[in-house]
Amino acid sequence: MADITIYSSNYCPFCIRAKQLLGSKGARYNEINVDGRPDVRAEMARLAGRTSVPQIWIGDTHVGGCDDLIALERSGKLDTMLAG
What we know:
By secondary structure, the chain is an alpha+beta fold.
């Protein structure tokens, strides 16, 4: 299974939804919480080119946010990406 990294916030409903989707697939992920950590959020923004959470990487591919993850699921591409 591919390495997954998700930058998230505890109070973000989109983060919760993305983690639920990944969990439903049995995917394990490395969660990096940005709450109260402006340096970590800045690093995420530098890597992703976006400041909103969640920001998700599967392997070396920046997927984007929750809507992007759901779009991959709906298109049938998520399982392939998760398989690595």
